[in-house]
Amino acid sequence: MRSPLFTKLSILFRRRPSVSWLVLCLVSVFGLIALLESSYSSTFDSVASSTNPDVLTSYRKLKKLVRNDYLELNSLSVGANWIKDIGFCGKERENYVPCYNVSANTLTGLKDGEEFDRHCELSRGQPHCLVRPPKDYKIPLTWPAGRDIIWSGNVRLTKDQFLSSGSMTKRLMLLEENQIAFHSDDGMMVDSVKDHSHLIAEMIGLESDAEFLQAGVRTVLDIGCGFGSFGGHLLSLKLMALCVAEYESSGSQVQFALERGLPAVIGNFISKQLPFPSLSYDMVHCAQCGIIWDSKDGLFLIEIDRVLKPGGYFILTSPTTRQQQDSSTSAKKGSMSTPLEEFTKKLCWSLLGQQEETFIWQKTVNSQCYSSQLSIPICKGEDMQLYYQPLAHCISGTSSNRWVPIHDRSGPLNSTDIEIHEVDPDDFFEDSGFWKSALRNYWSLLSPLIFSDHPKRPGEEDPLPPYNMVRNVMDMNAHYGGLNAAMLEASKSVWVMNVVPLGARNTLPLILDRGFAGILHNWCEPFPTYPRTYDMLHANGLLSHIASQDCSTLELLLEMDRILRPEGWIILSDTLGPIEKARMLATQIRWEARVIDPQNGSDQRLLVCQKPFTRK
C-alpha cells in the first residue's frame, strides 16, 4: 500500500514532479534514513532491554515506510522513463503462457509428466513486455454468434494440424478461409453433443437433460473438454460447466473454448491437486480425455472424489474402459473385475449404468462409508486453502459441514446455507444489494464517451452498451460472487470467472455453492490461461491486497494486459493511493485510463481503462 508521504506528493503533483523537487525529496529521505540508522545503533541496547515490544515494532514499521518512500521516489527520478520503454514481446510469445515452459522444466530434471505441469518458480525473471496479438487477429464476434464461429487467426491451429486431427474434431469443426465454424447442435449428427447430454440424463434417471437442475446438477467440471461443445450446450441449459485441460502449445482445448466465449482454465491431472476446495462440483465429465484413471494407485480418482459433492456424478466415456469391461463380463461371473471397478468400490461409488462407451458412477451421500474402507485413509483437517498441492492418497471432506447431498439443494442459497460457510447472512445480502447498484453504474461508465476528448458522465440521453457487449468477465477479487449474481439478475449475456486471491478470506466454497465458476489463485503469479481470453477484468480492493503481499503492481497490470483481449475493459476499485499508482502505470502500458470519483465522501476511486487494439 502506498505510504502517506508518497500519497501527499502524488496529490501535490498531479503531473510528474519537477527534477528539483525530486532531488530535494531524495536528499531529505537520505537524511532521514541516516538519522534512523544512527538512532538505531545508539539506542539498540535500550530497545532490546525494553519490556514494551511496541517500540521495536513501531520502529520497524517506520523504517520500512521510509525505505518504501525512497524506492518510490527513486524510481520516479532516476528511472522514470524505464516504464515507458516497455515494448512488445517478440512474435514467438504471441500465445505465451507463463509457468508452462516444458523445455525449461525438462532441463531442471522434471519427468514422468511433471514437466508438463505448472511451475511458476521457473518463469520468474522474464523481461517485461506486452504480448501482442497475431498479425491476423480480429475482435471476436459477439455472443451468441461467437460461440459457433471464431476467427482462425485468433487461435494457434494450422490447416495441417486440423487435417491431421481425429475424425471427431473434423465432425465438430469446419475450417474455412479465415474462420473456424463449429457445427450447430441441431441433432442431425448421430454422435452430437445434444444426444450425448440426453444419454447422460437418461442414465441417471431423468427424462431429459432439461431436468439436470431439478436433479441438483448445477456445476460441471469438464476434463479435457475438446473444444468446449459439451460445456456450451450445458451453458444453454443454465448450468455452469468449466473446462479444465492441460497446457498445449498449439491446438489448445482451453484456448479454443475461451475464444468461443466458454468457461475454461488450464489444469491437468499429473502430480498436483486442482485449485478447488473439496466438495466443489455436482458432476465431473470426461469424454475421451486421455487420462488413465486407475494409474498411480488411483490418485486421479481420489482427486475426482475430493472435488465431487455428495451424490455427485462421474461421467466417463472411453473406448478403453469399454474394452476392459467387456473382457471382465466375458469371463466367468465373479471371477474377475477391472482395476477401475475395484477402485471405485473403495471410493464408495455406485455404478449407475453403462451404455456403449459411457459409464456413470455416483458418489455416496453417506460419509461414514469411507470409514469402513480401510485401504484409503481419511485426510486430516480441511483443504479449504489448497493451492496446487501434491495429489493426496486420502479421502477429503467427510467431516465438513458442507457435506450436503446435491439432491437436497434447490434454488438460491438461503440464510441456513450461508451460515454453513460461516458468513453473516445480513452481510451477504447487503453485499448483493451493493453489487446490483454498482453494476448499473459500471454499465453506464463503459460507454465510449468516457474516453472522448471531453469525458463526462454519460447522461440519460447517451445510449448504453448492448447487453452482449462482453462475453466473459474475470472478477479478480470476487468476495461472495456478488458481481456475478448481479450480472445474472440483470440478464447480461455474460459468464464470470470468480477468482479468490490466495491470502484473502477463502470464500470460494460459497461461490461454487452458488453455482458459479470460480478458482483460487495467487496474484503474485500469472493466471493459468492463454493471452487475449477475457473481455473484461474487474478487481475491487485487489491493488491493496497485492501491496500487502509485497507483490509488484506493475507485473499484475502486465499480466492483466496479457489475458485481456484488445479493446477489452478494466475496472479497478480501491483507495486513492493504489489507484493513482495504477493509473500512472496504466498509461505506460498504453491503456486509455480515467479515474472516477464516486463522490460518496470516501477515498475510494474507480480506475476505468480500455486496452487498445495495437499491432506492431
Automatic annotation (TrEMBL):
Record's keyword annotation contains Transit peptide: no
A Pfam family annotated for this chain is Methyltransf_29
| Keyword set, alphabetical order | Glycoprotein, Membrane, Methyltransferase, Signal-anchor, Transferase, Transmembrane, Transmembrane helix
Coiled-coil residue spans: none
Its BP terms in the Gene Ontology are: methylation
Which cellular compartments is it found in? Endomembrane system; Membrane
Question: Which GO molecular-function terms appear in the entry?
Answer: methyltransferase activity
Give the record's GO CC terms. endomembrane system; membrane
Q: Which InterPro entries does the record match to this protein?
A: Put_SAM_MeTrfase, SAM-dependent_MTases_sf
Q: How does this chain sit within the bilayer? A: Single-pass membrane protein; Single-pass type II membrane protein
Q: What is its EC number?
A: 2.1.1.-
Principal location class:
membrane
> What does the similarity note say?
Belongs to the methyltransferase superfamily.
What is the designated name of this protein? Methyltransferase
Give the organism the record lists: Solanum stoloniferum
